Automatic annotation (TrEMBL), chain A:
Database matches in HAMAP family: UPF0145
Protein name: UPF0145 protein C3L24_02615
Signal peptide: none
Family to which the UniProt record says this protein belongs: Belongs to the UPF0145 family.
From TrEMBL, chain B:
Domain of life: Bacteria
InterPro entries, per the entry: UPF0145_dom_sf (IPR035439), UPF0145_YbjQ-like (IPR002765)
Protein name: YbjQ family protein
Family: Belongs to the UPF0145 family.
Coiled-coil regions listed in the entry: none
Taxonomic source organism: Candidatus Sedimenticola endophacoides
Length: 104, 151
């Protein structure tokens, strides 16, 4: 499965468009991480726990998107985009979407 | 009186550690950017038509928080308006860090370019008082790996 955020693959033609596929993941932070984070809020700096958390959920979103594309019988997802939003206090939603296609 | 002392202590801690961390971070950013300057990240949507490349999605992210001193400066700025330089440098650092992480991932795969670089910023806990003011910066793009290197 080829996943790319470009619309064009050199020397390859798109045989069929299968429409938009998407995958999402909502994660909440746990208390331990929140305590560390509030300390960091005084000193400033990177919140490593959150960075990892969001990276994990992004991977999961991509995985779900890939699964959806597989069910449609695609062999590539092109023009992939990410989007993040905080839907509630302490929880973030991560969305990955793209176009499922069959490449020649 | 006691509250004032706590406030001043927090302010000093934030100023001291924040300044130190920022200086150290800028040094490391410049050093790593120079090391990775041979791997350009381009915002172009169109890949080179010549040469066979394998495409892989790469990304890098970073979540940063604002220190107490900078937040105080920003609150002051809110009164008078104008540029909030304290936050500008913070976002600049975060964005460059995210791009570097993406590039490091691409370099590990033996990529030659990163195309269609996109940047996204999201505040993951906004609006709430007395909580962590944290911002996530995400950089993603498509790494082009020469077929020969991919094996």
């Amino acid at each position: 499965m080829l996943i790319s955020n470009m619309e064009i693959i050199p020397d390859t033609r798109i045989q069929e468009h299968l429409g938009v596929v998407q995958g999402n993941s909502v994660r909440a932070k746990h208390v331990g991480r929140d305590i560390m984070a509030s300390l960091k809020n005084i000193f400033g700096g990177e919140l490593k726990g959150y960075t990892e958390l969001l990276q994990e959920s992004r991977d999961e979103a991509v995985e779900r998107m890939t699964m959806q594309a597989q069910q449609l019988g695609a062999n590539a997802v092109l023009n992939v985009r990410f989007s993040t939003s905080s839907i509630a206090q302490g929880a973030a939603e991560i969305l990955a979407y793209g176009t499922a296609v069959i490449l020649e | 009186m006691f509250e004032l002392i706590i406030f001043l202590v927090l302010l000093t801690l934030g100023y001291g550690f924040g300044r130190y961390a920022e200086k150290r971070h800028y040094r490391s950013l410049i050093e790593r950017e120079q090391k990775l300057s041979s791997l350009p990240a381009v915002a172009s949507r169109f890949p080179p038509m010549r040469g066979a490349y394998r495409q892989v999605l790469v990304n890098g992210n970073v979540v940063i928080s604002v220190d107490y001193f900078k937040r105080f400066l920003a609150v002051l700025r809110n009164l008078f308006g104008g540029r909030v330089t304290a936050y500008e440098s913070l976002m600049d650092r975060a964005r460059r860090e995210a791009i570097l992480r993406m590039k490091e991932q691409a370099e590990g795969m033996g990529a030659r370019y990163v195309f269609n670089l996109k940047l996204e910023t999201a505040s993951i806990s906004k609006g709430r008082r007395d909580t962590v003011g944290s911002v996530e910066v995400l950089a993603y793009g498509t790494a082009l790996i020469p077929e020969a290197a991919a094996g």
